[in-house]
Each structure stands twice: as structure tokens, then as C-alpha cells.
Amino acid sequence: MKLSLRKRLLFSSVVVGIVGALAFVVGELATRWLTPAPAFAASLNLHMNFSTELSPDLHGVSTPVRFSTNRWGMRGSQPPSGAAWENATTIVTVGGSTTQCFFLDDARTWPAVMERELRSSGYSVWVGNAGEAGHSTRGHIRIVDEAVAQVRPDYVLFLVGVNDLSLSLRPKWQWDHEMSDALLGRARSDGFNWILDHSRLAYQLGLFKKIHFDGTVVRAADFSVPLPSEPVTGDEFVLPDDVDSVLRSLDEFRDNVVHLIQSVRGFGSEPVFLTQPLLIDDSPKWSSVKARSFWMKEQRFELDGASYARLLDRFNQVLIEVCEEHDATCFDLAGIVPHSTDYYYDMVHFNDAGARLVGEQLAYLMGVHYLASGVMLAEEPSAGSNAASRRDVGSGLIGGG
């Protein structure tokens, strides 16, 4: 007797489901056999042993640009292991795109410059760059709790603020609730993150899609961003005297910084925070120029450059306050880097010269501060090292440590 059409469809669906499940299992097993497991949760976007070459058209950025990651998915050299790890001073940098420095060559990011400067001064140092474009302190917490806590470096450096400000400026401020999936911080669901973390096949397929279809890992070679120069129209939002009233992410930022301090100290490392520098400042010069961010498609309201600087200054002030309250080290990087196009390729991102200045000054501040406080970096510098001759920019230090 012939089966009814409904039963035949049901039977076909079951067969297709079984075949599909078997194919997925075989694919999963083959992928696990052929590819190494990510060092940390796959959904953290720390793609290990990745390498690409770019040719962006950006002010003050030399090309070609090589972007690569080590076995932990961080920019920088391969991390030492065993006794070499224990005998070195180990540092992990955490932040957004101004830390990741995606469009700068591996050797010209500020974490790489800092490492090179400290090594040239006689220190045994390794620096891993765990910056992720689009991350606010929400993303930093997950990077710290799920990745950095596993390796427990001596120091964790945080460059924070600008993406937390972006949370206040975007119409839907929950955009970065989980991990940023792209340059603009597109959030993913918990369910999709779970699949990425538990299926090697799903992770590899997701990475293939990101590279070849989304372009979120390999950006276009002709990527270009102009320096801010668009004149204001007169329709820009006028900030109230109490700027905190428009910064709806400021309280969360304060709480997140406290969380980061406690988390890092909880696994035995030392947190070090950096205020966020900016090309523009709160001055008449920039009050006539519109503040445009290429990483944000839309904002709640338009701002002139001086107003944008005032808002970011508020995040820097809160960062300093929290570090003082919790006896944490904070280097006032915003007070060190000049507001000059010599050091930026857009409103906030460092070019080669800016990253070099940041790396050199942080190497100086780390060496001087932690040597002076009795917290020794591995291997003292030899006599005549360039640490003593570094240009004095003032202590740059706010808070304890």
C-alpha cells in the first residue's frame, strides 16, 4: 500500500535530518582533527595564528600593513612558556581599536613599540595586544574574565573610554551588550556564542564568512578615513552644563572599571589604566568642526568637535577618580599626546607617529613608576640604557599603584 503524501514528506524530512546530523558530526570531527582549538572562547574573536596584509590610505600610516596574531589570538610575538614566562615581565593590553591598532603594521602598534623600548632598556618583557575594535568596557570585562585570567600576566594595561562614550551617543545604546562582532560592535546572541564556543566547525565556517563575505577580519585595501574638517551647520546639539545628564553609559563605565580592577587583582595581576587621547579638544578651533566617527553609522545627536572632546574628557575624569578611589595606577595619556594631526589619522586613532609616541612614553612611565615603587620589572636596565635619557614628559601618573 502506498504511503500518503504527508507520510512520505515526513519520512523524507527524517532522512534528510539524519543525513544532515551525520554530515555535521563527520565535519565536526574532521575539523577538530585538522585545526587546533582556539586558546580561549571562540566567540571572543581572538583569532589565533591569523595573518593578512593591507594597504589602507590613511594620514601618517605607512603601507603595506601586516596584521598578524599569535597562538593566543593576540597581536605580538608568540608568548613565552614555562620558565621563560615566569622569568619575564608579562603584559597584556586591553582596549578597543585604539589599542588593537588594526590599520598599523604589527611592528608599529603602540604595544609593540612599548615592548621594543623596554627590551632595549634591558628588561625581559613580553607584550600581548588583546585589543578588539568596537569593544567598550563591557567587552573588556569578558576579555579579562575569560582570556586574560587564564594566562595571568604581571600587568594588564587598559586604554578605555571612547567606545563607552559611543554607547551614550548611539540611538540604541545596548548595541555592545555582548561581544562586538564587527568594527561597529554588532552584538550576537548568547545562543550563537554558545555554538561558536562548542563547535569547531561552526567557528571555522563563521570565520570563513567573516573573511570572505563580511570583510570584518580582512578590511578593504583601499580603506580611507579623512581627518576631521567638515564645518558645523548650526544644527549641532548644545551640551547642558551638567554633561552627565546626556552620558547614560557613564555610571556603567564607572562600575565596569571597578570590576576590571577587582578582576585583575583577583588573579594576581596589576591593573594599569590609560586615559584616552584625542586629536580634537575643547577649544574654539574645534568648535567650528563637526565631530564625525566613521565607526558609528548614526548618533543620537550631532556634535561639534569641542563638545565631543568635553564628553570624552568626562570619561577620562571618571577613570582618574575611580583609580584614585581604588589605589590603582592611571597614566594620563590624554595629557601626554598633543592635539596634533602629526599623531592621528582621524579624530581618535593613532597613526605611526602617534603610536610610536604612546609606546615610547608608556615604556618610560612603566619603567620609572614601577622601579621607583619597588615593583621591579624583570632584569634591571644596564648602565647607560636609554631609559634614563627618555624625554621627560612629567610623571603622567594619576592614582596609586
In words, what does this structure look like?
Helices cover 40% and strands 9% of the residues. With 401 residues, the chain is an alpha/beta fold. A six-stranded mixed sheet has the order 4-3-5-6-7-8, sandwiched between helices. α1 (5-34) packs across α8 (200-214), α7 (190-198) crosses α8 (200-214) and α9 (250-266) runs parallel beside α11.
What CATH architecture do you see?
A: 3-Layer(aba) Sandwich
Number of strands: 8
Radius of gyration: 23 Å
Strand order of the largest sheet: 4-3-5-6-7-8
Can you identify the CATH class? Answer: Alpha Beta
Q: Helical percent range?
A: 25-40%
Structural class call reads alpha/beta
Q: Main sheet, how many strands, which sense, barrel?
A: 6 strands, mixed
For the termini, the CA-CA separation is 83 Å
Give, in order, the helices and strands: HEEHEHHEHEHHHHEHHEHE
Q: Low-confidence stretches at least 5 residues in length (pLDDT < 50)?
A: 173-188, 380-395, 397-401
CATH fold type = Rossmann fold
Question: What coarse outline follows from CA principal-axis ratios?
Answer: globular
Give the full name of the CATH homologous superfamily.
SGNH hydrolase
H/I helix tally:
12
**Domains (count):** 1
